[in-house]
Amino acid sequence: MQTKTALITGITGQDGSLLAKHLINLGYRIIAPTRKNPDKSNLNNLGIIDSSLIEFLIYKQFSDFEAIIAQHKPTEIYHFAAMSHVGQSHENPAVVFDVNCNWTLELLASVIKNSPNSKFFFASSCEIYRNDLPSPVREEDEKRPNNPYGISKLSAHQMVDYYRLVKGLFACNGILFNHESELRPASFVSKKICSNVARLVKSGGKPLTLGNIEAKKDWGYAPDYIKIIHEIMQQKNAQNYNVSTNKLYSVKDMVNAAFSALNYEISWQGEGIKTHAINSAGDTVVSINEKYFRPLDNRFLRGDNSKIKQFMQNHSQTPFTQWVKSMTLNEYKLLN
Ligand code: GDD
């Protein structure tokens, strides 16, 4: 059988590196365009940094992808590279739109011109949905993002639809709900919670300070989602899919799960901005700071995942408490 080639944008990020590992296990050859001197620590942690199946290429600007696509004509293209921080997107909407939308459009135009048989996957986001939709949301439900990140993702998402429906490209949107792993950068709440809880249990110190601990998310485990994303690209027809768990947990639930993973007892006191958690000695281990609150962060969005259920008999989803435990134990191990 002929070797499949996958081009991954954003291979050094959480999703890119996890997908690279999965595809290497399946025998794919991987084309990995990166900026000069990329941080390859995720690939290193996954043990694939020296894989002979990955060909790294340096690009300077988006337009360099035209030649890369024309030369390699990849079987599958996974477009993950993005500015992925929702909170920070309020500070820099123009850059976020350029990277997340205009680049996606350039890629699509280049694929249709130079390699129209390539399959294209776009990492769309649950941030595109209307804020107050009754849960659980389905793929066709109303889109109305309320932050620059969501707006840029929706515009790109609609371009993907256009290239599928009008130009005939095999192009899918995976509408990814929050997905975490040991590879998450520190700016995301899961990593912040698990690393600080590990530190507090190991050696004490300053409390973990959070924003809105009542925020609820449909949270999944990134290594599970990567397998689903690959399955999406193996289907006969290109479609859009929610990639979600259809379950909601709060930031506070995550804090509780992380402490409990290390058998450390805490109890919650106070209300609103004064809410805090103390340990059995009465020391404050978690507090709230308004500087971490976000505008319009009142979403309780759950993703109807019936469409991906067909792939999930092969790939079960790791329960919330199990992956929070795995992340916390990993952080604890790193402190030794
Ligand atoms: N980062 C952070 N830091 N978030 C906090 C904190 C804090 O101290 N305290 C509470 N939160 C809340 C945020 O307000 C948000 O409701 C929730 O925790 C999750 O925040 P993040 O982990 O930063 O993720 P996100 O929801 O903004 O964005 C992620 O998920 C999206 C949907 O899948 C990113 O991966 C996006 O790229 C992705 O589209």
Kindly list the characteristics that best describe this protein.
336 residues; alpha/beta; Rossmann fold; UDP-galactose 4-epimerase, domain 1; 2 domains; seven-stranded parallel beta sheet; four-stranded mixed beta sheet; 10 helices; 15 strands; binds guanosine-5'-diphosphate-alpha-D-mannose
pLDDT < 50 runs, ≥5 residues: none
Helix content: 25-40%
Distance between the termini: 46 Å
CATH superfamily of the largest domain: NAD(P)-binding Rossmann-like Domain
In the residues, how many domains can be counted?
A: 2
Beta-strand level of the residues, as a percent range?
15-25%
Shape: globular
Class based on secondary structure composition and strand pairing: alpha/beta
Question: What does this entry look like structurally?
Answer:
There is one protein chain. The chain is of the alpha/beta class. The chain has two domains: 5-181 and 220-246 and 301-317, 3-Layer(aba) Sandwich (Rossmann fold), CATH 3.40.50; 189-216 and 250-300 and 324-334, Alpha-Beta Complex (UDP-galactose 4-epimerase, domain 1), CATH 3.90.25. 37% of the residues lie in helices and 18% in strands. The chain has ten helices and 15 strands. It has helices at 14-25, 41-45, 65-72, 93-114, 148-165, 189-203, 222-232, 251-261, 306-312, 320-334; strands spanning 5-9, 29-34, 54-58, 76-79, 119-125, 170-176, 179-180, 208-210, 216-217, 220-221, 241-243, 249-250, 266-269, 276-279, 284-288. A seven-stranded parallel beta sheet has the order 3-2-1-4-5-6-11, with helices on both faces. Helix 1 (14-25) crosses helix 7 and helix 6 (189-203) crosses helix 10 (320-334). The relative contact order is 0.13. The site of guanosine-5'-diphosphate-alpha-D-mannose has 23 residues, from helix 6.
